[in-house]
Amino acid sequence: MLWWLLAAYLAGSVPFGLLLAWAAGKGDIRKVGSGNIGATNVLRTGSRGLAALTVVLDGGKGAAVALLAGLYPVYFFLFACESLNSICEPSVAALISGLFAVLGHCFPVWLGFRGGKGFATALGVFLAAVPLAGLAACGAWLAAAWATRISSAGALAALAAAPAAALAVYGPWSAAAALAISALVAARHAGNIRRLLASTEPRMGGKAP
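The chain above was modelled as a monomer; its predicted structure follows.
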């Protein structure tokens, strides 16, 4: 089990935004805007294409890890009591694996454990592991982002929607695992939350604080 969780972490730690920006001659995006390695900051380089590709790749690595973990869920429960296998939903293994991929994105060993906020990777995990909850998260993001024109508001709405939908559709274990992912990513948005409360969070297309 430990080797797979380590592999999930390493897969999640690939900094696609940083690599794409560097390959496109945009320089080090950690020195641009908010200094984040995610798609929102890549967009501040002026390239929508690179930002879109960053979303796809960051989400894709989370989805890939979750899908592979779902094929062999038994490995994730060897450390616990045998009865756990009979009461956990099949999606829990994929979500636990996805959590480590998100940890890798947020705290990549290659960048001194200073990574992104993990939203795209988490969304990829949700769509692969608990698809209906992932779709609910996408819908919540679109609705909140459209209403407020603030990307972080959409992300926080999506993070709230995913565990709630997982509980309604998949069960309490899946909801708990989804909540762990959402809590981690929400914690990475602490600065955004403070600015939202102070009404100083920039709207989409605006400059980073």
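The chain has one domain: 2-197.
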